[in-house]
From TrEMBL:
It comes from Exobacillus caeni. The gene is flgB. PANTHER family: FLAGELLAR BASAL BODY ROD PROTEIN FLGB, FLAGELLAR PROTEIN. InterPro entries: Flag_bb_rod_N, Flagellar_basal_body_rod_CS, FlgB. Its main location: other. The basal body constitutes a major portion of the flagellar organelle and consists of a number of rings mounted on a central rod. This is Flagellar basal body rod protein FlgB. Residues 12-37 form the Flagellar basal body rod protein N-terminal domain.
Amino acid sequence: MKVFSTFQPLEQAINASSLRQKTITSNIANVDTPNYKAKKVSFQEELENVTNSFKSFKTNPKHVAFSTESPSTGHLKVETNKNTLHKSNGNNVDMDYEMAELAKNQLWYNALIDRTNGKFNNLKMVLNEGR
């Protein structure tokens, strides 16, 4: 059994969430910049790659089999939204949308950090022989 098999997918998801956070805050910072076009991280594809990389182990022959295929190494992409126009100065940042995305991303990031901390706490308990 691989003890550290879930750390890499968690790390990739945290890195993706961090990039998304930077992109959203950049959009918010440029809300009044003329001709600024909002950017977005193509996050869902990477999320699916990361979550599909989790391995499962059958402890009983009656358990449902899970796919253990490794995902392809996807890259995060920051895309510029050129299709919309919200202001007369050419800027297309929607502050309400960006704030909602920021809140969603923060919740996701916190959940990933909590899960990572749980993994480290489990390892710590094993190293301390359950004490």
